[in-house]
# Entry
Amino acid sequence: MENEIKFAVLGAGHGGTAMAGHLSLMGFDVSLYNRGKERLRSIQQLGGIEIITSCETIPRGFAPLKIVTNDIKEAIEGRTIIMVVIPANGHQYIAEQLAPHLEADQIVILNPGRTGGALQVLNTIRNLGCEKEITVCETQTLLYASRSVNPAQTQIFRVKNSIPIAAIPAHMTPNVVKKLRRALPQFVSGDNVMKTSLDNIGAIFHPAVTVLNAGRIESTNGDFDYYTEGITPSVAIILEKMDAERVAVAESLGFRAMTAREWLYTAYDAVGRTLFEAIRSNRGYDGIKAPKTVYHRYISEDIPMSLVPIAMLGKLGEVETPTIDAIILLGSQLHQVDYLQTGRGLKDMGIEDMDLKALRQFILLGNR
# Structure
C-alpha cells in the first residue's frame, strides 16, 4: 500500500510491548527492539506478544511480530515511525545508537520525553554527525496504562483519550500527527516541545511525594495508597509550591504550562479549590499503591530527567526554583547520587548558549 506506515518500537517493557502488540493487532508492520537479549527471548520463541485487555475499544489476542531484535539497525531499517518507549534515563543511549543508522524522512517519537527529551535526542544525533532530514518529537505522557504479565504477555488497562505530541521544529507537528493518526488517533497536535516538556505533571506528583513519604514507604513496604494517602494537606502544600515554580519557568520562556489542578480536571474531571481537594476528588487514583522502596523511578528517573531540566530552564529564564531545588537535593542525598550533575542540563539539550529569542526561534522554527 502506498500509504502504509511501518513502525519500529524501541523498548520491550510494559509500554513498548503494549504499543507493539496494539499496532500489530491493528494490522501494522511492527518491529520490536530491546537492548538486552534476555527480555526478547520469549517473544522471539513465540513469534509475538499476547495482549490482554478488558477495553472494548482495542483489539486483544496474539500479536505477531516478524522482527524482534537487539540489533537497532535491523529494527529501524525501512521504518516510517520510530517509537521510543523507554525510561528517559535511556534517551541519550538510544540517540547514540540511532545516529549512524537513521534514514531520511524518518520520524523519531519519545513516549514520553519527560522534560527536554526531544531536545537532548536531536542534539545528540546532530553532534554525532547525522545530517539526515529526520523529525524528532515527544509526547506529553505515555499512551497506555499497562503492565507486563510476563515478557511475552502484556495487559493494557486503558488507552488514554488524548495525548499531545510536538515536533522540533513546531511547524512539523501537523505532518507527524497526520501520519501517526492513521494508526493511533489518540495523538493530537501539541503547541511545541517546550509545552509538552513543561506540562510534565509527573515531575510534580512523583519525586516529592516519594521523598516526603520515605519513612512510610520503608516502614510499610509501600502498603498505602500513594496519592490519596501519601498526599496529605501538608504534602500538597509542597506540591503546589513546586507547581507554581514550574509554571513560572514556562512563563519566563514565553510559554504557558497548565497547572496541576488544570491537568487533573482535563485528565480526570477532578475539581477542587486546592490541589489537595482536586486529588482527593479524583477517583482514578483510588487503590494505586506506593512504591515498595524509595529506590524507584519516581526518584531515579523523575528527578534527573524532569526536575533537574526544569530547574536548569529556570536559570535560563532567571526564575528561582527553591522548592524544586530542595526536592532535587533530598532525592540526591537519599540515593547518594548527585542528580544535578547526572541529570539533563542545558548543554545536554543543546541550548546552553541560546538566549530566549534564539530558544523560541529554535523550538518554533528550527533556526539556530
Q: What stands out?
A: The first strand starts at residue 6 and ends at 10. Residues 202-352 form a domain with the N-(1-d-carboxylethyl)-l-norvaline Dehydrogenase; domain 2 fold (CATH 1.10.1040.10). DSSP finds 18 helices and twelve strands in the chain. The CA atoms of residues 22 and 164 lie 19 Å apart.
